Amino acid sequence: GKGVWRWREKVEEETMEKIIANGVSEKLLIELSREELERELELSEEQADSLEAIMKEEEYRLASVKTWSEEEVAEWLGTLGTDFAAYEDSFLFHNVNGDLLLDLTADDLIEELGVDKLGHRMRILEEIAYLKKICYKSARGSKNAARNQSNLPSFDEIENLKRQKAVRLQGNLDVLKHKVNQMRDAEAKAKLLARQAEAEAGRIQRQLRKLKTEPKEQGMKVNSSKRGVVRGWMDQCTFKPKLNPASLEMVENNFGDSDFHRRLESQKAISEKKFKELQKSLSADNTTELRKKYMKYFNVRLGWDTRSGIQQSYIDSFLANPGAYDVKLSDNEIIRLQALKGAKQHIAIYNSIITKDFLTRNDEKRPTRQRKANTDGKQGSNPSKPKTLDQYFTERFKWKEVDNGRLDDLLDNSKAYELELSEQQLARLRELEFTKKKKAIFRALQTQSFLKRNAADMRRREIAQQKAFQQLQPQSALGEGGGRSVVQSFLERYHQDMETRHTRKLALVDKVKKEDPNFKECTFRPNLHVRVQSPELETSSPVQQTA
């Protein structure tokens, strides 16, 4: 360290020899009392008083870590060892002051400050924890001092406090002087670098303007071949994207390497690290869940040996004769699969096989379902509502058990299961966990069934309404009042029935909304439009015209 960090220089040589001989560290010296210093280190009263005052000053400096500047944090980092001096530039670049130092985590040290070595990270975090402990101890001591304010100190204690205060004030004065000098140096350095950057920017702009004008003039003068024109342009190009050697040498001699250069190197290291991580993530295709899934499926379903990957001979044999593997593919599908290569071809073959298998199973189960539907229709029994979601799925889709794979299969083939949802809705359902996914699919199926029954019922009623009007037209022609009263009576019954159905629908929607806040109410509003053919109905009441 340098400046205020050299507390060892304030200790007498004889006292320092005793400290080193007993193997006492700085942290232990701060914890030792005056009596322990005299007894354990065999110091005289004057030496113990002087050492105690110096360590109190050091403890106060550590307790005031929140007031440290970026330069003081960098100096503190250098006191941890020569290996840690390499991180000083990174700490200065990210403006890590004392207050920010206490909030650093292991992730910050790795991602932002570039501390990649585990031992260095653990050492820095250990020292930060020690600084937090010192701050907490100092704050707690201040509270205890305020609590014991009523106890009057003795004369010796007052004199000791005065000496400590004088030492502390002297230390604060040294710190302030050091900060003023640092600020002056930083200001002078910033002005110099600003002038150099301005001069460099002007030089680069002049070169850019020259590059834009000279090739055009050279091209107008030279009527040679294309190769000669290119060679002439290259001869005229004088752009060299680097710092002026004289300015760079001056900055390095006075202030070390420039901040601009260090910032570029740090950004380059961070970019290279992110690029390597991206390459690693892109090359992790062999460990994806989808690859494991179709590799296992090919092994079980097609009998391929996939331990060392999928061989091209397996793919060629499958595409040449898919019927040998109990898979029916059209010529267009085979051509499309042959055009793909690598993982895309494997995934496409996997999706084609599972789709064909699903359709085959569905065709095989269709006669059984039809027979059972006919049997249930003859018996006239209304199936009761399933007690649980598992019973609903097992009874409707004839599953042995409900698992995540069957739910994903249902979503992948939603149209085959009469579940009409958009791709965005299907994607949201796939992202849910198993329990929530099961409930959401159940509500979607219930809603689809309700809307289909409602639409079918409305179509039947609309057809019946049209037939009723066709039957009432001859009656209305015979008598003036008979036809009108019959139509009005029918409309009253119709509107009453529609209000009852609307009330039942609102109750069902409220029930579904309580279970699922994300449920959106169906905005379908049926409205009958019948062309009036009878002259008597054309002059009827507003109620009839509304119908």
TrEMBL record:
Q: Which GO terms describe its molecular function?
A: NAD+ nucleosidase activity; signaling adaptor activity
Cross-referenced InterPro entries: SAM, SAM/pointed_sf, SARM1
- Transmembrane domains' residue ranges: none
Q: Name one GO biological process term.
A: response to axon injury
Residue span of region Disordered: 361-388
Q: Gene Ontology terms, cellular component aspect?
A: cytoplasm
Q: Which UniProt keywords apply?
A: Coiled coil, Cytoplasm, Hydrolase, Repeat
Query: Taxonomically, which superkingdom?
Result: Eukaryota
Start and end residues of each SAM domain: 68-134
Q: Protein name, please?
A: SAM domain-containing protein
Species of provenance:
Hanusia phi
